[in-house]
Amino acid sequence: MKFEWDENKNSKNMDKHGIDFNDAITIFDDDNRLEAVDDRNDYGEERLQVIGEAMPGVLMVAYTWRHDNTTRRIISARTASAKERALYNSMKGL
Asked: Domain 2-92 falls in which CATH fold?
């Protein structure tokens, strides 16, 4: 898997949410992760959200595909909300 992101965005994300994109990408190692298209707004591109376990805990990561769907471009990462964690845990059978 390939990943990319804007380093300035990563720095802002660390300041706001305390999550480094380098840690957030470990969410894609979670075979139980939940992914869905984020269609709340028209972003001009298809954006996806994923909930899963990563090195810092259960996260919500937003990303989009780039380079003919060979690279995930990370947009943001944060700790999953209580509702998101409950959804994730229910899908895992916990």
From this structure: Nuclear Transport Factor 2; Chain: A, (3.10.450)
